[in-house]
Specification:
The protein is built from 19 helices and 25 strands. The protein is of the alpha/beta class. A hairpin with a 4-residue loop joins strand 9 (181-184) and strand 10 (189-192). It has three domains: 3-242, Aminohydrolase, N-terminal nucleophile (Ntn) domain (Glutamine Phosphoribosylpyrophosphate, subunit 1, domain 1, 4-Layer Sandwich); 247-449, Rossmann fold (3-Layer(aba) Sandwich); 453-598, Glucose-6-phosphate isomerase like protein, domain 1 (Rossmann fold, 3-Layer(aba) Sandwich), CATH 3.40.50.10490. Helices cover 36% and strands 24% of the residues. Bound molecules: 6-O-phosphono-alpha-D-glucopyranose (G6P). 6-O-phosphono-alpha-D-glucopyranose is lined by residues 303-306, 350-352, 355, 358, 401, 403, 604, 606-608.
């Protein structure tokens, strides 16, 4: 949800900012803007992508060794040039970029209006810029004090960078609820919503915590809280490789990330599966293992694809560890006054570790005394810092807005957790424990095998790219995969798609089926196989087009379905790690063939830091 980037030092800021914005474009891409400071302050902004901003800046004065840039995902005010950031205060003293939402902006705006302020945009950010300026002029305080005091009046979430015209040798950064990282170089500092724009310049970073504020010149950094308590900056080393955030020869990040899944799952295993494949260890759970083993209930929270991974987790924990599980959308959980017991274990799943609703749900669970664990991908993000323990997925940066490798890494972690718990609670035999570990380690090669059927994915996509609706069906462990398949298709190709438990089809969706309706059915060899074959027959009897995901060697469905896509033999509990792969590939090719922007689908953002 909006990406922010900044630079202060001796180099030209413009190329650093543009490159940084391109890396952050996954966070929002409806408009972009930049401010450059070189004695004077210039802002350039436009509707559209970072490439549109670059075109817009052509021939303009882009000098300056201090600057800030923003790529927007609109919350307040439609995407247009005026609502794009940076926002300049009414009298031109301050320039602000912002990620987040100022919830009390309406009230602040009315008050500023009565004091003579008028507004060009519909944004909450311009209100903040004017509030800072009002305090600066009225209180005759320094720019950083004005920023700090303004932030004490603000309700909501922010990651901001602020520059002041008359104190033009510094930038002020602050955060509450929206991420902000500062890169520490020699005689220079970098600012960004995540570390990806920073890594090629420095591996020393400071992660701002909520309510932190930094006042930065090219040679100094002072850290304090918004309440003016001095803080000692904690410099951490980044462990991120630049190759991981580039496309590496693939047409799209999404495709690269789908193909990376064998590697990313191996990275998830690293250090966790013993060398002899006889045991699993998750270091981040050591201090909560007793609580987990004794848990009467697990509540899993997440949003989007992470919620789907959570649903797979429900099947895994209940099947292998016999612990009752509830899976909740974080946005529902946080507002519905849920019953939370002290001996509940809450597991928050999030790729970014920054999703606003998930963070708020964690807070609520903690307030109620539950043990809260995180399963996150982005190291150092907010969720791992807020939780009592947890597991990093180590899938590497995921740039494509449609989540793929993060999902399989999340499901891998959940599987490892369930297997460990099953063994400790003696709900699975030692033999089953060892078999599941062995089978898990074979998953990466099996994913690569599925991906070798590329031509088949393209062929089916060609045939059905123009369909207006798709139905996805699965039973048991495959029901969440059906939901995930439908989500993948709708988010990147804009085709209406629904995921359903196959047996529920009779209670509604069957009415939609006709000769134009492709129905993707996950029908692998497991205990519901016979039942799902019957469901497929029901679809065929109504002339639906069946694309069946089957286990290698299935001859029955080859005769019934219009298309079969094979996955290698695998135990039922691990099958979601494989069956999701053909669904990712179908969505990818259908979206490409429809001319959609696969990595940056309309209206979406990778990291949703507003509720
Ligand atoms: C957005 C992304 C999804 C993601 C969801 C939850 O909607 O586009 O891909 O699943 O947020 O994000 P999280 O970072 O918490 O997993």
């Amino acid at each position: 949800m909006c990406g922010i980037v900044g630079y202060i030092g001796q180099k030209d800021a413009y190329p650093i900012l543009i490159k940084g914005l391109q890396r952050l474009e996954y966070r929002g891409y409806d408009s972009a803007g930049i401010a450059l400071i070189n004695g004077d302050t210039r802002t350039y902004k436009t509707k559209g992508k970072v490439s549109d901003l670059e075109n817009y800046c052509e021939g303009k004065n882009i000098s300056g060794s201090i600057g800030m840039g923003h790529t927007r995902w609109a919350t307040h005010g439609e995407p247009n040039d005026v609502n794009a950031h940076p926002h300049v205060s009414m009298n031109g003293h301050f320039v602000v970029i912002h990620n987040g939402i100022i919830e009390n902006y309406g009230r602040l705006k009315s008050r500023l209006k009565t004091r003579g302020y008028n507004f060009k945009s519909e944004t909450d950010t311009e209100v903040l810029a004017n509030l800072i300026e009002y305090i600066y002029l009225k209180g005759k305080v320094s720019a950083d004090v004005a920023v700090r005091l303004a932030l004490t009046k603000v309700v909501g979430a922010f990651g901001i960078l602020v520059a002041c015209k008359s104190e033009n040798n510094k930038l002020v950064a602050a955060r509450k609820g929206s991420p902000l990282v500062i890169g520490v170089g020699r005689g220079e500092y970098f600012f960004a919503s995540d570390a990806s724009p920073i890594i090629e310049y420095t591996d020393s970073v400071i992660y701002l915590n909520d309510n932190d504020m930094a006042v930065v010149t090219k040679d100094s950094l002072q850290l304090m809280t918004i309440n003016n308590d001095k803080l000692e900056p904690k410099i951490q080393k980044l462990n991120l490789d630049i190759g991981e955030i580039e496309k590496g020869g693939y047409d799209h990040f999404m495709l690269k990330e789908i193909f990376e899944q064998a590697r990313s799952i191996n990275d998830t295993f690293r250090g966790r599966v013993s060398f002899d494949k006889q045991s699993l260890h998750l270091g981040g759970l050591y201090n909560v293992t007793d609580k987990l083993v004794a848990a009467k209930r697990i509540i899993i929270i997440g949003c989007g694809t992470s919620w789907h991974a959570g649903l797979v987790g429900e099947y895994l924990f209940e099947e292998l560890a016999r612990i009752p599980v509830e899976v909740e959308y974080a946005s529902e959980f946080r507002y519905r006054n849920p019953v939370i017991y002290k001996d509940d274990v809450v597991i928050a799943i999030s790729q970014s570790g920054e999703t606003a609703d998930t963070l708020a749900a964690i807070k609520l669970a903690k307030e109620n005394g539950a043990t809260v664990l995180g399963i996150c991908n982005v190291v150092g993000s907010s969720i791992p810092r807020e939780t009592d323990g947890g597991v990093y997925t180590h899938a590497g940066p995921e740039i494509g807005v449609a989540s793929t490798k993060a999902f399989t890494a999340q499901v891998t972690v959940l599987t490892m957790m369930a297997v460990i718990l099953g063994e400790k609670r003696k709900t699975i035999s030692q033999e089953k424990y060892l078999k599941l570990i062995e089978d898990l380690t074979l998953i990466p090669d099996k994913i690569d095998k599925i991906l070798s059927y590329n031509e088949m994915f393209k062929h089916i996509s060609e045939k059905h790219k123009d369909s207006e609706n798709f139905l996805y069906l699965g039973r048991g462990f495959q029901f969440p995969v059906a939901l995930e398949g439908a989500l993948k298709l709708k988010e990147i190709s804009y085709i209406h798609a629904e995921g359903y438990p196959a047996a529920e089809m009779k209670h509604g969706p069957i009415a939609l089926i006709d000769e134009n309706m492709p129905v993707v059915v996950i029908a692998t060899h497991d205990k519901s196989y016979e039942k799902i074959v019957s469901n497929i027959q029901e679809v065929k009897a109504r002339k639906g087009i069946v694309i069946a995901i089957v286990t290698e060697g299935d001859t029955v469905l080859k005769d019934i379905a219009d298309y079969t896509l094979e996955i290698p033999e695998v135990s039922e509990e691990l099958a979601p790690l494989l069956t999701v792969v053909p669904l990712q590939m179908l969505s990818y090719y259908i979206a490409v063939l429809r001319g959609c922007n696969v990595d940056q689908p309309r209206n979406l953002a990778k990291s949703v830091t507003v509720e």
